[in-house]
UniProtKB/TrEMBL annotation, chain A:
Entry keywords, A to Z: Cell membrane, Electron transport, Heme, Iron, Membrane, Metal-binding, Repeat, Respiratory chain, Signal, Transport
Record-listed heme c 3 binding positions: C335, C338, H339
SUPFAM superfamilies listed in its UniProt record: Cytochrome c
Protein name (record): Mono/diheme cytochrome c family protein
InterPro entries membership: Cyt_c-like_dom, Cyt_c-like_dom_sf, Cyt_C_IC, Cytochrome_c-type_DH, Membr-bd_ADH_cyt_c
Gene Ontology cellular component list: plasma membrane
Cytochrome c domain ranges (all copies): 42-145, 188-301, 322-412
From TrEMBL, chain B:
SUPFAM superfamilies: 2Fe-2S ferredoxin-like, CO dehydrogenase ISP C-domain like
Source species: Neorhizobium alkalisoli
UniProt keyword list: 2Fe-2S, Iron, Iron-sulfur, Metal-binding, Oxidoreductase
GO molecular function: 2 iron, 2 sulfur cluster binding; metal ion binding; oxidoreductase activity
Protein name (record): Isoquinoline 1-oxidoreductase alpha subunit
Length: 444, 153
């Protein structure tokens, strides 16, 4: 009996010790033991491109802060967390990080003292980045970015939920291991696109639905949930798969390329969170990379069962359009001058509402949000766009917004389904109007 | 780019996304069309494109290629437009006047499409903003062109 107890205790101690080791250990890095060496200018430059691909500024800078000094507040159900200072300041930033430390933080979500980062940092995607890209990114962050002495803000999450070690177990289950492995049966362009989408681009962070455990349901084309559309922060990030209604089936590769390069095409203009991703990230990528992304996305099959009856344009039957429906008058007075009484927009400058993914997806959040709050200026090569969506929160009541969006979602063949004033009220309370200033976050 | 404005062909050098309003005022020097908000909210910039009302501040140049644009400068060459201007003068509609070229364009478009508008038609079509509050005079003038006498205020 005593022997049994001793064995049991020994097992518990060993298991406990093992667990302790596991949740606090620092994963190995291929850069362990490497000593710092001067970074050549072209490596720094390449790293700057990687930083744009990974859109590091999106979280680690705010419009009011110095580049990479942190500060973006991210609401979580448990409380707010703040993106940290990742400028090369030795006291408050990452100035003391070795390349191996940097690698562990970016690809594995582990700080030099063994603490686990919240997966708001998209290391489950970045883990797929190549050693070369990590080395270049490090060279840029250390040499291309100015140190900023700005202390990090404490997170608003309280004990016991602020304990980080359980994340090590979450990582063990949900985070893939290893960098992107090229698929030999696919061509080079496809693989480049897959790499950018899955790794640095972390498109799935918004566009892939998450499980109750908050992990993305799929991290590559092997899962049909990958980039199948998801709701995040009051915006519905639509499917990037070949779904006729709610995805990219009606977009050609050139259309996708134009969207990422110019922020617009004849189907849509970037808005909501994508306007920020465009302003700060995709417009800076090379044409070859954007073409690779477009090529890869066109290879992801759609799902007619999820997507529903294929949309086709239906013209209004009378000269006065669909007058008489609630919302028709508001549409004519507030929306039709830009989006057209026929719902077809104006070339690639003002997007159509007829056949738009946001008019066809059952989630109405993006349309409600953009109507309440307008959208950020789309800034291409430092030039703000000529047209922008203004905020209507002060002009229209919950009922008027619900009616006008229901009108849009039931006209011209759209079948997204109605919106209630309660839907509008809920978002009105949790969102703020977009700034009318052109905002592109600077990195230097 | 070639533009048809007030029955004249104009050659303009501008990008396709340039708002028609900029071209009318800045490139062609026709300043009767006004800039109010630039966001399709006020209607001061209203012009006609193929007889339909558009807000030129949100009308990209390349969307009016091959179409016929009419501005306030030429509105009296249209019989309906001429009647609208006469009613506007008759009722002394303008106060400060800034929004009025847009109002005249909106009224003309309405009356060309619907010669006998109901009160509801007028309310639905005359949505341009007027910060002097000349809305009642506007309604009276539109009613007059439609052949309806209103008791004057
Ligand atoms: S200036 Fe065009 S609507 Fe106000």
């Amino acid at each position: 009996m005593k022997k049994f107890l001793l064995t049991l205790i020994a097992i518990i101690v060993i298991a406990g010790g093992g667990l302790f080791w596991f949740v606090t250990h620092k994963p190995g890095s291929p850069f362990d033991g490497e000593t710092a060496s001067a970074a050549p200018a072209d490596l720094v430059h390449r790293g700057e491109m990687v930083a744009r691909q990974a859109d590091c500024v999106a979280c680690h800078s705010t419009p009011d802060s110095k580049p990479f000094s942190g500060g973006l507040e991210m609401g979580t159900p448990l409380g707010s967390i703040f993106a940290t200072n990742i400028s090369p300041d030795k006291q408050t930033g990452i100035g003391n990080y070795t390349l191996a430390d940097f690698d562990r933080a970016v690809r594995h979500g582990v700080t030099p003292d063994g603490k686990r980062l919240y997966p708001a940092m998209p290391y489950p995607s970045y883990v797929k980045m190549t050693d070369d890209d990590i080395r270049a990114l490090y060279a840029f962050m250390m040499n291309g970015v100015q140190p900023q002495n700005v202390p990090n803000k404490p997170s608003g999450i309280e004990w016991p939920m602020n304990m980080r070690w359980p994340l090590a177990l979450w990582n063990a289950v949900f985070v893939p291991s290893g960098t992107y492995a090229a698929k030999p049966q696919q061509d080079e362009q496809w693989n480049r696109g897959a790499y950018l989408v899955q790794a640095a681009g972390h498109c799935g962070a918004c566009h892939t639905p998450r499980s109750v455990t908050m992990n993305e349901k799929a991290l590559d084309e092997g899962g049909t949930d990958f980039l199948a559309g998801a709701l995040l922060d009051g915006w519905y990030a639509p499917s990037l798969r070949q779904d006729h209604n709610t995805g990219l089936a009606r977009w050609s590769e050139d259309d996708i390329f134009a969207f990422l390069k110019n922020g617009r095409n004849k189907h849509a203009v970037v808005f909501g969170s994508m306007a920020e991703a465009y302003n700060n990230s995709t417009q800076f990528m090379t044409d070859d990379d954007l073409k690779a992304i477009s090529h890869y996305l066109k290879s992801l099959p759609g799902d007619p069962a999820r997507d529903g009856q294929p949309w086709a344009y239906v013209a209004a039957t009378s000269a006065t359009g669909n007058a008489g429906k609630p919302g028709a008058q508001t549409y004519a007075a507030k929306c039709g001058f830009c989006h057209g009484t026929d719902g077809r927009g104006k070339n690639e400058w003002i997007p159509p509402l007829a056949g738009a993914a946001s008019s066809l997806i059952s989630h109405s959040e993006s349309q409600v949000n953009v109507t309440l709050n307008g959208s950020a200026r789309v800034v291409t090569a430092d030039i703000p766009d000529a047209y922008r969506m203004p905020s209507f929160r002060e002009q229209l009541s919950d009922r008027q917004i619900a009616d006008v969006i229901s009108y849009v979602r039931s006209s011209w063949g759209n079948h997204g389904g109605p919106v209630t004033p309660e839907d509008v009220k809920a978002l009105r309370e949790h969102t703020d109007p977009a700034s009318s200033n052109p905002i592109v976050l600077q990195m230097r | 780019m070639q533009l048809q404005i007030n029955n004249k062909t104009h050659e303009v050098d501008a990008d396709g996304d340039t708002p028609l309003l900029w071209v009318i005022r800045d490139n062609l020097g026709m300043t009767g069309t006004k800039y109010g908000c630039g966001l399709a909210q006020c209607g001061a910039c209203s012009v006609l494109v193929d007889g339909e009302i558009v807000r030129s501040c949100v009308t990209p140049l390349d969307s009016v290629i091959g179409r016929s644009v009419t501005t306030i400068e030429a509105i009296e060459t249209d019989p309906v437009g001429k009647a609208v201007v006469a009613a506007w003068v008759n009722h002394q509609v303008p106060q400060c006047g800034y929004c009025q070229s847009g109002q005249v364009m909106a009224a003309t478009a309405l009356l060309k499409q619907t010669p006998n508008p109901t009160e509801d038609d007028i309310a639905a079509a005359m949505v341009n903003l007027c910060r002097c509050g000349t809305y009642n005079f506007i309604k009276t003038a539109v009613n007059e062109v439609a052949g309806r006498k209103e008791a004057s205020l």
